[in-house]
Specification:
The chain is 80% helix and 6% strand.
Amino acid sequence: MANGTDTERGEGWVLFAGVMILTVGVLNFLWGISAIANSHIIINGNHFDIDHRQAWGWTLLIISVIQIFVAFGIWSGAQWARWTGVFIAALNAIAVLADMQSFPFWSLAIFTIDLLIIYGLIAHGGRSQTAAS
């Protein structure tokens, strides 16, 4: 493969990772607001009372703001954003596996996306700096 084609493929992965982190950030923001507004959750007709749901909601809000900033940092080519994105995607992958009983298909889908984000950022996240030198 030519060097230009290889670089373009890497840029696509980095763009994908940024878009997915931004999407997850927005979803986590909405999920956090939902958790703060209502400390009860109904899943599959069962009623679960979670004591610290509001605290979890605030945590999700903070994480979502970080994810949104990381997405823009990834698009600008910042290395801090690349590694923060890898770390956040790994944490998110672990967190969605904790929800596997409640949301099995959603958890597997988000876990897969997190793995693709990690791959894109690790394998291709440094390409723009390498290609420029």
